[in-house]
């Protein structure tokens, strides 16, 4: 295409409408990322089933254990802990040795906490990985992290089935946890960085639709496959093909531009335009996001100046609560009616409407109101559950499940939306590191979820929901401090953020001899508190 006048330097948000903000290229990219998120997601809650306690019963002809051999005791029964008073040879698990890691490695009584450790240390590993992999992604590129992390998750997840003892298995869980933020988080960041501002909630949240699909797949698999090793194998090996997507998924345009690789970014933009059946004028090029010496961002920048520090701290607490309540409700779902597989799948299914709510309300009432209202709904639901009796008939049991589903829907809507909000609050230069910090906060909450959901349940059945509901209310109050980001241009550097992230409008006019892009820039000052 011939040059059409003076060269125009545009930033990424301004040039995306010329190549297609959400068209064929983004559809294909989104599809590859959505499929790739499934094997990672399966590993997140697989221990809900793989570390499940088997009921126990007296061994045949035992003279010490005097309960009838056909009488079994499940976790939560008043006599469940009676086995701790007996010698190991006097009782047996009802289910086979291959049922879970609890039966495989003979974890009972004082060793039952090892089952909690597999989930807690997975999330702690996730927290450390979020920091390390976030820094690597910001400095060396999203792709340098995404597919290597995905390969580790699939391969190590499969190899964990050959663990000779519990401690080797626990090590594999920590490794998988460490590399988990290198997949889902980077997918979300990339999906958000390839589309225009109004499509960010849609592009990112669609990923969480497949997160939900994976959760349901896990529940169905676990229902039919009652052996933990087979469950791990079917959750890893069939997905090895997703590693081939590495050849087709490009590096983030925003990351290339931010790191002074405008020529590569422009080549990629022209490829995208061609794929989307659009033409990018020759007189349009990417504007470098800064001038002068290149500045290396560091985690310290997340806490300087004071306003950024307060935003980071408020977001961190909100993410911690979202992690605690989201996984806490999932892990405690079995206590809603007592039907483990049914309750797990039902509380997973409500994430589909949560995705619709997140997309719709983020684009209408804004990110801030959506998250505050949905998290408040989750809080109220958690506080209501203990008030509903568990042994007063089927009607109240259904009501208890319904309230639990509303709570899960609320926290899922909040969790889905807060990703978009935080991505928009942090400038590109520290976005991955900022998301890494928030992943740490979220994983602290997630790591505490099994201890809250299962540990506090042994003290009093109401405590887990009271703790989750109370902590959510505090988060709701704190979130009022953060700025609304709906309709505000994404900041690329610290300078962009300080200057208020000036908005850009682009007007296109078609002429008879082809496409002639005429770019008009209009800068509008807005209140500083509404800026990125």
Radius of gyration: 25 Å
Percentage of residues assigned to helices? 55-70%
User: Can you count the beta strands?
Assistant: 6
Treating each run of at least 4 consecutive H or I residues as one helix, how many helices?
21
* Straight-line N-to-C gap: 36 Å
Q: What does the average pLDDT come to?
A: 82
- Taken from the alpha-carbon principal axes, the silhouette is elongated
SS class: mainly alpha
- H/E series: EHHHEEHHHHHHHHHEHHHHHHHHHEE
Give the low-confidence spans: 498-532
Approximately what portion of the residues adopt beta-strand conformation? under 5%
User: Numbering strands along the chain, what is their spatial order in the largest sheet?
Assistant: 1-4
Describe the structure.
With about 525 residues, the protein is mainly alpha-helical. The protein contains 21 helices and six strands. The strands form three sheets. Strands 1-4 form a two-stranded parallel sheet. The two termini are about 35 Å apart. About 45% of the residues are buried.
């Amino acid at each position: 295409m011939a040059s059409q006048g003076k060269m125009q330097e545009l930033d990424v948000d301004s040039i995306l409408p010329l190549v297609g903000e959400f068209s064929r290229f983004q559809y294909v990219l989104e599809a590859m990322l959505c499929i790739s998120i499934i094997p990672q997601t399966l590993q997140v809650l697989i221990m809900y089933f793989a570390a499940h306690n088997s009921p126990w019963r007296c061994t045949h002809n035992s003279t010490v254990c005097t309960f009838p051999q056909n009488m079994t005791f499940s976790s939560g029964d008043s006599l469940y802990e009676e086995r701790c008073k007996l010698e190991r040879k006097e009782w047996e698990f009802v289910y086979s040795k291959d049922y879970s890691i609890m039966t495989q490695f003979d974890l009972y009584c004082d060793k039952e906490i090892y089952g909690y450790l597999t989930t807690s240390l997975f999330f702690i590993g996730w927290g450390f990985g979020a920091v390390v992999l976030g820094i690597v992604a910001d400095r060396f590129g999203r792709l340098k992290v995404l597919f290597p992390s995905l390969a580790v998750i699939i391969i190590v997840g499969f190899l964990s089935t050959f663990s000779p003892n519990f401690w080797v298995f626990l090590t594999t869980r920590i490794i998988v946890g460490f590399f988990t933020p290198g997949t889902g988080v980077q997918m979300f960041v990339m999906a958000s960085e390839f589309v225009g501002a109004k499509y960010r909630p849609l592009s990112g949240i669609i990923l969480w639709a497949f997160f939900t699909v994976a959760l349901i797949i896990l529940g169905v698999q676990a229902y039919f496959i009652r052996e933990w090793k087979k469950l791990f194998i079917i959750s890893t090996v069939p997905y090895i093909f997703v590693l081939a997507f590495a050849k087709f998924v490009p590096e983030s345009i925003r990351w290339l531009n931010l790191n002074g690789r405008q020529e590569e970014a422009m080549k990629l933009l022209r490829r995208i335009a061609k794929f989307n059946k659009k033409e990018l004028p020759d007189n349009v090029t990417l504007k470098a996001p800064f001038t002068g010496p290149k500045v290396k961002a560091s985690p310290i920048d997340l806490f300087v100046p004071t306003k950024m520090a307060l935003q980071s701290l408020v977001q961190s607490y909100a993410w911690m609560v979202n992690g605690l309540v989201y996984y806490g409700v999932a892990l405690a779902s079995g206590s809603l009616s007592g039907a483990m597989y049914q309750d797990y799948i039902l509380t997973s299914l409500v994430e589909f409407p949560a995705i619709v709510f997140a997309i719709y309300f983020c684009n209408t009432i804004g990110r801030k109101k959506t998250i505050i209202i949905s998290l408040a709904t989750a809080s109220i639901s958690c506080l209501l559950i203990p008030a509903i009796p568990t042994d007063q008939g089927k009607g109240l049991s259904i009501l208890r499940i319904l309230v639990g589903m509303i709570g899960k829907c609320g926290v899922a809507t909040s969790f889905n939306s807060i990703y978009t909000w935080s991505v928009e609050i942090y400038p590109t230069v520290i976005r991955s590191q900022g998301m890494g910090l928030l992943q740490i906060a979220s994983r602290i909450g997630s790591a505490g979820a099994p201890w809250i959901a299962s540990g506090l349940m042994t003290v009093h059945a109401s405590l887990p929901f009271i703790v989750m509901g109370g902590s959510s209310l505090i988060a709701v109050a704190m979130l009022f401090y953060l700025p609304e980001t709906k309709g505000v241009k994404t900041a690329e550097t610290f300078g962009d953020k300080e200057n208020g992230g000036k908005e850009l409008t682009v007007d296109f006019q078609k002429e008879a001899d082809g496409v002639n892009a005429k770019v008009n820039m209009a800068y509008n000052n807005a209140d500083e508190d509404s800026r990125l």
